[in-house]
Amino acid sequence: MKRREDLTTPRQRRRLGVHYDPDAFGQFSESIARYLGTARFLVWQSFVIGLWVTWNYALPERWQFDPNQRGLVLLTLVLSLQASYAAPLILLAQNRQETRDRMTTDNDRKTAERTQADTEFLAREIASVRLSLADVPTSSEISDHLDRLSGAIERMTARLDEMEAQRTKDQ
Questions:
Q1: pLDDT, position 1
Q2: Where in the sequence is the domain holding 147, given as residue range(s)?
Q3: Which residues, including other chains, have CB under 8 Å from residue 93's CB and lie 6 or more apart?
Q4: In terms of domains, do 73 and 157 share one?
Q5: pLDDT in tens, 66-116
Q6: Which of 33, 54, 70, 114 could in theory staple to 93 by disulfide, Cβ–Cβ 3.0 to 4.6 A?
Q7: What is the CB-side half-sphere exposure of residue 78 using CA atoms within 13 A?
Q8: Spatial distance between the Cα atoms of 30 and 147, rounded to a whole number of angstroms
Q9: Considering the chain, what is the average pLDDT of its residues?
Q10: Residue 128 Cα distances to 49, 58, 135, angstroms
């Protein structure tokens, strides 16, 4: 056994066995489960079973590969084998779908929370704008103020003219 220079990390156990890509296997199982759940598969399976039974009942005994006297044992074995592989593949596909659904639900929840926060922020901003606009004078209010100021200036100008005239008279 070789000694390693780096003693800070534990050694990896050597694994024996088959290495596979779980995602690729999951996609494969989903495609199988998707096919097993179709009417096409049921029609093909019924056709094959019908042909199997007809072959082993109607043809002479020397051509039968799964004779009726044995109770179609080979057909039973084939269907059991198919079921024993189909069930776990279907469960694996359902688990993957459940994981995707959970992720989608989490993303939807996060999106809804962000949307709600954004909506609340916008509502506060709109309320702030409304309050700010309540203090802004309208053009008619400004016009009224200008008219009053113009009147006051005219009165002051008239008064000043009178005072000026009075002063020139007194001199």
A1: 46
A2: 139-166
A3: 26, 29, 30, 32, 33, 34
A4: no
A5: 877 777 888 889 999 999 988 888 888 888 899 999 999 999 999 999 999
A6: 33
A7: 10
A8: 81
A9: 86
A10: 75, 88, 11
Question: Using one digit for the tens of pLDDT, what is the confidence trace for 118-134?
Answer: 999 999 999 999 888 88
Domain identity same for 145 and 122: no
Q: Does residue 13 fall inside a structural domain?
A: no
Whole-number Å distance between alpha carbons of 34 and 9 = 44
The mean pLDDT value for 18-37 works out to 83
**Could you report the per-residue pLDDT of 38-53, keeping only the tens digit for each?**
889 889 999 999 998 8
Residues 104, 84 within the same domain: yes
Is residue 3 assigned to a domain? Answer: no
Q: At which residue do the structure tokens 């802004």 appear?
A: 136
